[in-house]
Write a structure and sequence with these properties.
267 residues, alpha/beta, Rossmann fold, ProC C-terminal domain-like fold, 8-stranded mixed beta sheet
């Protein structure tokens, strides 16, 4: 099975590295990159050749589209004359529906839509995959196996992809925003920035590990830290008074609506 990654930006490169680390032969991989200097660097680093979109479409069994959504029309134009109805097309482009690819590619082309997130860069992505009209369970399994090299995978109906985009696609930004605010709070309380950052980052890592490994509900883990009349409950009261929970709900809903708007532009 030959695999072509169209667009070797951060996500594309992360997936390329993950596939190689997961045991795929670099000779079976290829990528596209608009900047020749970067293409040469990637070839030197990973031993994978850079190609044009047309060549990728004509030779690869699996095409992974990882370009910016605004560049999709040009990519589809190059693919249209080169892929066959048996080529598996995997879209990592936020907001783009499988129907867009199905309209522009040969009849029967199987398409799988994926919403990954940036922890793919450290092998800890959360990816959600959805089949298009012609994608089978076998196609989904191929995509799942590819993405398991860079993190975890869930399957969802395509009509849930906007919610996935809002929750886990944008999710890392919410965590970074929270960590940034907590570090600033540490500085306000008189701690050096480096110390505040170390305290919060390790607390975040440890807390995520507890959530993953304990199997406990987040409420139970929070209550275990929240002593009667203690410091934690005083802080949580302030968070509730300032509407932090409601703000998160509204923010994630806004992200979902924006994802739906981006998709409508390509209906």
């Amino acid at each position: 099975m030959t695999i072509a990654i169209l667009g070797a930006g951060k996500i594309g490169e992360a997936l390329l590295a993950g596939l190689i680390y997961g045991g795929f032969d670099p000779a079976d991989l290829m990528f596209t990159e608009r900047y020749p200097t970067r293409a040469a660097q990637l070839t030197e680093q990973y031993g994978v050749r850079g190609v044009e979109v047309a060549e990728a479409g004509a030779t690869a069994d699996v095409i992974i589209v990882a370009v910016k959504p605004q560049d999709i029309d040009a990519v589809l134009a190059d693919l249209r004359a080169n892929v066959t109805g048996k080529t598996l097309v995997v879209s990592l482009c936020a907001g783009l529906p499988t129907a867009l690819y199905e309209r522009n590619l040969p009849d029967g082309t199987p398409v799988v839509r994926v919403m990954p997130n940036t922890p793919m860069l450290v092998g800890e992505a959360m990816s959600a995959i959805s089949p298009g009209t012609h994608a089978t369970d076998e196609h989904l399994q191929i995509v799942e196996d590819l993405l398991l090299t860079v993190g975890k995978v869930v399957r969802v109906p395509e009509n849930q992809q906007d919610a996935v985009t809002a929750l886990s696609g944008s999710g890392p930004a919410y965590f970074f925003f929270l960590v940034e605010a907590m570090i600033d709070a540490g500085i306000l309380l008189g701690l050096p920035r480096t110390v505040a950052a170390e305290l919060i980052i390790q607390s975040a890592v440890g807390s995520a590990k507890m959530l993953r490994e304990s199997g406990e509900h987040p409420v139970a883990l929070r209550e275990a830290v929240t002593s009667p009349g203690g410091t934690t409950i005083a802080a949580i009261r302030e968070l509730e008074v300032h509407g932090v929970r409601a703000a998160f709900l509204a923010a994630i809903e806004a992200a979902q609506l924006r994802s739906a708007e981006l998709g409508k532009a390509h209906q």
